[in-house]
Amino acid sequence: MHRGPSRSAERARSGSAERARSESAERAGRAAETRWTRHAAIGLAGALARHAAIGLAGALARYAAIGLAGALIAAGAAAIGLAGVAAAEEPPWTWDRAKLRSTVEAVRAGRDLLPASWPGGAKVAVTISFDVDTEPLWMSSMGLTSPSVLSRGEYGARRGMPRVLALLDELDIPASFFVPAATFQLHPELATELKKRPQHEVAFHSYVHENPLTLTRAQEREVYERALGVFDELFGKRPVGFRSAVWDLSDATIDLVREFGFLYDSSMMADDHPYELRVAGEDTGLLELPVEWILDDFPYFGFLFNTPMAGLRPAHDVLPIWKGEFDVAYEEGGLYVLVMHPQVIGKRHRMTMLRELLEYIRSKPGVWIATHEAVARHILDAAGDPTP
Question: Can you identify the CATH homologous superfamily of domain 102-382?
């Protein structure tokens, strides 16, 4: 009589089936892993190819949908200086030596003006500045005028500046405020608050954060005259410090800076030391207090959608960079120029970081903290170019 499979035979067949299922699952897993590996290998190249296939028009369409086409056009082209390059100009690899030299010598670093000593025997000079751009940054440089975007500039006047001024008051630290004249017209209370604090410098930063590379010489002169008129009206005197709104210069800018009697510029990046500006190979007598993107808050924190400047870095990531730059300036007996924006640094946790930085700087012996103007006058006096 047929008795059917034994229990041991059933267990054997069950085990074989389980092993088969396990091996099948393992093969499927390896196949899936292989597929993902291939996808990973394609990676960025595939993504870039797809973006290239879509093309710039598609990219701009996406940016436009979120309101940033103007930012790309203005910030991506104008702010980095490409607006001043003629589309038909021959590419640099075709230039001869004379063309190469004339291009780089348009504005160039001249004499190193680092003084042999700082006041009171200080080891380092620290000068802190705030570019109070508010809404003009967005409406002019970025070409954006929607309410949400402009509210980011309003934050700088409404909340950022009070926090900055309160911290400087508490720590008894003087600073330089580079202000577009239109900021004062939009927020006259800022002029009132600065006039209450004569220890601070109020300096020039355009009329409405316009890009000089987009202006003719006549237009640039006209807009600077208009801006200086606002300073005359509000403060009864003109500023001695100049900073270009986009940290760049037209062919006319330095001539106009000298024509209007500014003491110094603070827009260029050719050195860590202060230096004399040269234009077309000639000394100008104009002092440069150089800036640097690594000592500016906007690259770290200035948020722009889908651009390389994504912002939103944790403040504790930036503090070691700013401390490290100070430490080396301290060792070298140099100059430390820090640039911030109340609408950017004025956020709550970033102000906590700024407090920590300023307290660290003040804890070191032999630190002279002064306005850009005070630093400029000391440098020029030490160089034998006394200022009035």
Answer: Glycoside hydrolase/deacetylase (3.20.20.370)
